[in-house]
């Protein structure tokens, strides 16, 4: 009798340890997704990063030219101040300081504009990713899908068999490619920078 109870207990222990793809002994089906990998390899995030860089370069060109001109004017100011006198120098110095303040304001405006535009687009991509994972979990019968990553980790350890990251990433990218409009052409400056 003791032997049969021990064998029954041992077989139950082996059965519960041999769960498939996240089915825990308690009956819950769990898995996790590496969110840092998703954020690096999800095509929507890659496209947003490329678009952001291109737009930042485009918006920064005019600002760059103004900054260069201000530097040239400031350098020539030294020589002209001696020739034209102190009163002229004070007026010119105020003008240069005002231009510098305006450039700072323009730069802050560009940064804010980029953050607003691409922050909203990034939030939208994150929402789509979360919805996809939620739908994936429902469709495949998961009770819980946890997130792991570099920043906010909710998993300390999990067997590799519980990792759904590659499956989710493949599905996300497939869904993104099928719903995304054709990629815009990359600006020549951005293309040259890649090389």
From TrEMBL:
Per UniProt, which keywords does this protein have?
Signal
Instruction: Give a single Pfam family match.
Output: OmpH
Give this protein's Gene Ontology molecular function annotations: unfolded protein binding
Any GO BP:
protein stabilization
Please give the superkingdom of this protein's source. Answer: Bacteria
Task: List GO terms (cellular component aspect).
Answer: cytosol
Q: Where is the signal peptide?
A: none
InterPro entries of this UniProt entry?
Answer: Chaperone_Skp (IPR005632), Skp_dom_sf (IPR024930)
Q: Which SUPFAM superfamilies match?
A: OmpH-like
Give the family this protein belongs to, as stated in its UniProt record: Belongs to the Skp family.
Name of the protein described by the UniProt record: OmpH family outer membrane protein
Species for this entry: Flavobacterium zepuense
